[in-house]
Amino acid sequence: MPSRRVLMVALAASFVLMPGGPDPASGSTFRRMSDEELVRQSLLVVDVKVVSTVSIWNTDHTQIHTLVDLDILDFVKGDLPAGRRTLRLRILGGVVGDMAMTVIGAPQFRAGERSLLFLRPACERLGFPLVSPVQGREPAVMDGRTGKLMAPLRGVEYSQLLGDLRKTVARVTQPPVPAPNR
Questions:
Q1: Parallel, antiparallel, or unpaired: how do β-strands 99-104 and 5-10 relate?
Q2: Could you tell me if residue 44 is inside a domain?
Q3: What is the 3-state secondary structure (H, E, C) of 71-128?
Q4: Does an H or E element contain 138, and which?
Q5: What rounded mean pLDDT belongs to the chain?
Q6: Is residue 65 part of a domain?
Q7: Residue 156 has pLDDT above 80, yes or no
Q8: How far apart are CA 89 and CA 73, in angstroms?
Q9: What values do phi and psi take at 139, rounded to 5?
Q10: What CATH number is given to the structural domain containing 58?
Q11: What's this model's pTM, rounded to 2 decimal places?
């Protein structure tokens, strides 16, 4: 069996600097963000299907990045210019040949899977494009017993999650109502 060299990268320092990241004294514990916080911090909230993934070296040959090509099935918040319906994310970590770079907390994507993503501004250029390392991705899984598409992290049907988030987007993105002049 061929051996694989593994480079582990902990992004704890960058998570501390991220909104919603952990308190430095709390180790690897992350504060759960509310849906309102996730929506406010997201440039895009999108229902996607993974088309393909490929891992490559960066130009300096010091890091491995995984390029994730996504078809956007639905926009829950935000939009892309000129009606674009595809995204390419660059995720820090991956496998090239016999070298693996593992980033603790980085999402893993596989072709064909569906997810709801909460994406930060400049999401196509960042090595970690999700607004939260723990909550920035809600996978969709088919329930083999019922045949329904589920959001297992929340224990609800995926369509209910999308509907609930649309209501949250409408609520938190409405301009404030000015106070009456007296």
A1: parallel
A2: yes
A3: EEEEEEECCCHHHCCEEEEEEECEEECCEEEEEECCCCCCCCCEEEEEECCCCCCCCC
A4: strand 137-142
A5: 84
A6: yes
A7: yes
A8: 16
A9: -70, 150
A10: 2.40.50
A11: 0.79
